[in-house]
Design goal:
The protein has about 650 residues and is mostly helical. Helices cover about 55% and strands about 5% of the residues. It contains 26 helices and 8 strands. The strands form 2 sheets. The chain has a 5-stranded parallel β-sheet, with helices on both faces. Helix 23 (about 560-580) runs antiparallel to helix 24 (about 585-595). It is globular, with a radius of gyration of 30 Å.
């Protein structure tokens, strides 16, 4: 190449690189001076600096109008993952976040509690990254960034927001029908220069009147999507493209994915918008035909027509049936992906397999029973896949979960009030029922205050807890305490409160579990004593030794733990020998005698009871049992005389 050609090429290269270099300098300066928003997926938690938390500004990646940007849950998780942790990230939309319930009503909290109780020795972390009014673009974007945070699994529930969610094909924040280009635009939006440009464009637009308009209305602007139209298929293409990209990204890092089929109300929600002259048929006509068939008991026909009516609804807030087919078909291509059939589970639990108000609050959001069923579907899928452990010895039946799950009356009532207010507005326009109650309960007052945002959930729980404690309603106090602990997994005080409440209801194993959680966060001498005392009563000397050793090292009083440590070590050794010879009454008697050396009648009683069960003629066990009964009687007499 001649020198003239070389000079000409150099000029062209400089002409290209100079503007890029200038933009890079401007971008650097804007970052240096803190312009705009931090769009990182996680930021350091202010209250727990050793933890990450979902960035409250991360949703600004997806909303052109930042006034519509939503904020997700505040669920801290450790920056340095514990070796004993099982960590799950949950991705999705408003159903995934648990709307209308503020905290423990969501399916991920049902799942969190059940897994914690199934595997009490594990640190189960289920971090919900869902956002209201987003769709598969957000899920795809988040999935790209999760691997460095060491998830053991990812759970996904999405599909209803493909048309009106942020960047959806019919939303007010629409950017285009090509998912690859929109995905690239999301990445570009994180640049400070792009944020600055977007702010100029937004200020130049006429300010929309958002007064008395719900987020549903602002995001959709009442736009219609006819069945079979170009927009309809664009939404499905968008979903399938983003879903495959999401699963491919997670598959690349060998991360197990559990993605659910979606559910919506078929029977008890008439189509929002119907056209009698629509070539594909009238949604309202199909809905009427479904109701008639249902009334006649022809449930197969009714089911078919209800589904058709939903799919023909032009206001597309409910995903069409074809979207679940996409989930099933696309997931089959990825070995680490499991389809969780939430839709089939809801059908099984619904009258005549037709989904309605029995499990759903309005169009797509489940009630508490529905969220519990969603969690059950994921729980069983995790078990089937042998996640966490190959042997789920602590498996908790669904009926047992329903009895003990710390979801309160306040949570339930708050959800009812939220839905009543939602259904009063567009597109439902249902009149709110008149309030005839002259006297409201404490729970109703707190739920009402929550619904109108007069108080926080935490404040409502503490108020109820103090009232239950004052009136000695110990079972309700325990449920509230557990609810607070479930919502605050980094707060040792919440675990201590739950442990104390469990002791008030004589649930010693549960109390020990919560004290152990507290101790792991903040080791404490008094908590260690509480743990080993109760573990010894439960005849778990091998576990008690850990906390006795801590108490021995950190003892500031006059009592010596050396003798106790030696005796408990002897009991643990005897118990270890017993493991391979459970019928040896002599070993059980020796354990009982050593328990009695430090007046642990409960531990001794468990041993002699087992010895007599093995051999009812065991004279030594019978004598020890009589001795223990006498000690208990003397203790009770002394206590009553005080």
């Amino acid at each position: 190449m001649s020198s003239e050609g070389t000079r000409s090429l150099l000029i062209r290269v400089i002409a290209i690189l100079l503007p890029l270099a200038l933009l890079a300098v401007i971008e650097g300066l804007m970052r240096l001076f803190g312009y705009g928003y931090n769009h990182a997926i996680f930021v350091t938690d202010k209250d727990y600096p050793t933890c990450w938390v979902l960035n409250p500004d991360v949703s600004k990646r997806y909303f052109s109008n930042l006034a519509n940007a939503t904020i997700g849950n505040h669920e801290p998780f450790k920056k340095i993952k514990d070796k004993n942790s099982y960590r799950v990230f949950v991705l999705g939309e408003s159903t995934t976040i648990g709307y209308p319930y503020l905290t423990n009503g969501s399916f991920h909290r049902w799942l969190q509690y059940r897994l914690q109780m199934t595997f009490p020795e594990k640190e189960v972390e289920i971090i919900n990254l869902a956002l209201t009014a987003v769709n598969s673009y957000t899920v795809r974007d988040f999935a790209d960034e999760l691997a460095p945070y060491q998830p053991d699994a990812v759970i996904i529930y999405m599909g209803h927001n493909e048309y009106y969610g942020a960047l959806g094909v019919s939303s007010t924040s629409f950017l285009g029908k090509k998912p690859a280009l929109v995905h690239a635009a999301i990445k570009i939006r994180q640049l400070k220069i792009a944020q600055w440009f977007n702010s100029i464009v937004y200020r130049a637009r006429p300010t929309p009147n958002t007064e008395n308009r719900t987020l549903m209305q602002r995001m959709s602007d009442k736009s219609q999507v006819p069945y079979g139209s170009d927009l309809f298929y664009a939404g499905l293409t968008q979903f399938e493209t983003n879903l495959r990209a999401t699963l491919e990204s997670l598959e690349k890092d060998n991360i197990p994915v559990f993605i659910a089929t979606v559910v919506s109300n078929e029977k008890d929600l008439k189509p929002f918008i119907s056209r009698d002259d629509a070539p594909e048929g009238s949604a309202s006509n199909y809905f009427t035909a479904a109701q008639l068939a249902y009334a006649k008991g022809d449930f197969d026909v009714a089911k078919k027509h209800f589904v058709k009516a939903r799919d023909l609804d032009r206001l597309r807030f409910r995903a069409p049936d074809s979207l679940n087919s996409i989930i099933r078909n696309s997931s089959a291509n990825y070995p680490h992906t499991t389809v969780v059939e939430v839709a089939k589970k809801f059908e099984k639990e619904s009258p005549h397999r037709i989904l309605g108000n029995e499990l759903l609050l309005e169009h797509v959001h489940p009630n508490l029973t529905g969220y519990a069923l969603m969690a059950d579907a994921f729980y069983l899928a995790l078990r089937q896949s042998k996640q966490i452990d190959a042997d789920w010895k602590g498996f908790i039946p669904f009926d047992s979960l329903l009895r003990v799950m710390p979801v309160t009356n306040i949570d339930s009532l708050h959800g009812v009030y939220e839905i009543l207010m939602l259904r009063e507005q567009w597109p439902f326009y249902e009149k709110m029922p008149s309030d005839t109650a002259t006297v409201k309960s404490m729970e109703e007052k707190l739920a009402g205050a929550l619904a109108v945002k007069q108080i926080t959930w935490g404040k409502a729980m503490l108020t109820a807890l103090h009232e239950y404690e004052r009136t000695h309603q110990t079972d309700k106090a325990l449920k509230i305490s557990e609810a607070i602990a479930l919502d605050n997994p980094q707060n040792f005080k919440a675990f201590n409160q739950a442990a104390n409440a469990a002791m008030q209801t004589s649930q010693t194993p549960k109390a020990v579990y919560y004290w152990q959680k507290s101790f792991k966060i903040k080791p404490d001498f008094e908590v260690a004593k509480s743990i080993f005392v109760e573990l010894l009563k439960l005849n778990k000397p091998e576990q008690a030794l850990i906390y006795i050793a801590y108490a021995e090292r950190n003892n500031k009083g006059s009592f010596s733990f050396k003798d106790l440590h030696q005796k408990v070590s002897e009991i643990a050794s005897l118990k270890k020998r017993l493991t391979g010879n459970a019928q040896d009454g002599s070993l059980l008697n020796q354990m009982a005698m050593r328990y009695l050396q430090f007046a642990n009648t409960e531990g001794a009683w468990r041993c002699v009871t087992q010895a007599l069960r093995v051999d009812p003629a065991n004279k030594m066990a019978a004598q020890l049992q009589e001795q223990i009964q006498q000690l208990k009687s003397e203790h009770a007499s002394h206590f009553n005389s005080q």
